[in-house]
Amino acid sequence: GRDPACRSAGRRPDGSTGPCYCDQACARTLDCCHDYAQACPVIPCVVSQWSAWSGCAEPCKTTYRVRTRHIIQEPRNGGEACPALEERAGCVEYWTRQGTECQQSLIPALITTGGFGKARKKRAAADGNERAGYCVEFQLVGLRPGCLHSQHSHTGWMRHLREGHRMCVECRQPALRAPGQHCRGDGAGSRLNQLLHWQAVGNHQCRGTWRRIRQLDTCSCPSVHSFLFI
Questions:
Q1: Euclidean distance between CA atoms 201 and 138, whole angstroms
Q2: Rounded distance, CA 210 to CA 204, Å?
Q3: Positive or negative CA dihedral for 53, 54, 57, 60?
Q4: What is the DSSP letter of 118?
Q5: Ranges for the SMB domain (predicted)?
């Protein structure tokens, strides 16, 4: 925007006289000619509306989606610069590009207290092809304050959740899902120390994160502070 050759002599917008210029830089150096604003009006950048959001960059993992816009009018004569032309937002897709469900760690685990299992009839394996069940040990990393405000008798167990504690979660029928005979959100295939998500059944405000420690094929969850996958 600097063009020293475009020069004249006369009055400036502030009333002073002397050399004055007609290039865009004069707006910053305050040595424009008095008629600069009329001869060279400020033209701000004009951009289009945002496009629709794209899908997630990759399925089956925490990633991002994108929307874009383009420049319709470039700024001129010191006009306002163009804003960002791309915007990203976090997202998760639980389905592969082929339309099958993601069988891995980002699907939030739905859990309830192990006491609920007393009302469940354990189904013994009908044959050698069906697993009787297993347990997964997690370390609770974070939880929402909503867990502490559970008032109903069937959600009172949520008030005993504590960050840093280990949790034993049992996977058994009817939560075992074909074809891999696993429970949704059990963290199978997750990376070491990866933060995984859980959601308490009965209170949508009680949810948080944990880290998978190990899987126990011979399940021996303690009678207290044990949980079930739903």
A1: 17
A2: 17
A3: positive
A4: G
A5: 2-45
Take residue 110 and report the two structure tokens written for it. 């739905």
Q: Which amino acid is at 229?
A: F
pLDDT digits (tens, 9 = 90+) for 59-118: 777 678 899 999 999 998 778 899 999 998 877 676 777 777 666 555 778 888 876 655
C-alpha 27: how far from chain center:
43
- Cβ atoms of residues 167 and 137 within 8 Å: yes
> pTM for this structure?
0.51
Backbone phi, then psi, for 160, in 5-degree steps? -95, 0
> Are 63 and 57 a contacting pair, CB within 8 Å?
yes
Hey, what are 51's tokens?
């496009």
Whole-number Å distance between alpha carbons of 46 and 29: 25
3-state SS assignment for residue 153: helix
Per-domain residue ranges for the chain?
Answer: 7-39, 46-93, 109-229
Q: 197-219 pLDDT, tens per residue? A: 888 887 778 888 999 999 988 77
Q: Which burial class, exposed, middle or buried, applies to 80 when counting CB atoms under 10 A from its CB (0-12, 13-18, 19+)?
A: exposed
Q: Which CATH number describes the domain made up of 46-93? A: 2.20.100
Cα-based distances in Å from 177 to 180, 197, 200, 214, 230: 7, 19, 19, 20, 10
Token pair 């049992």 is found at 170
In 92-179 the beta strands, taken as DSSP E runs, fall at 109-113, 134-143, 166-171
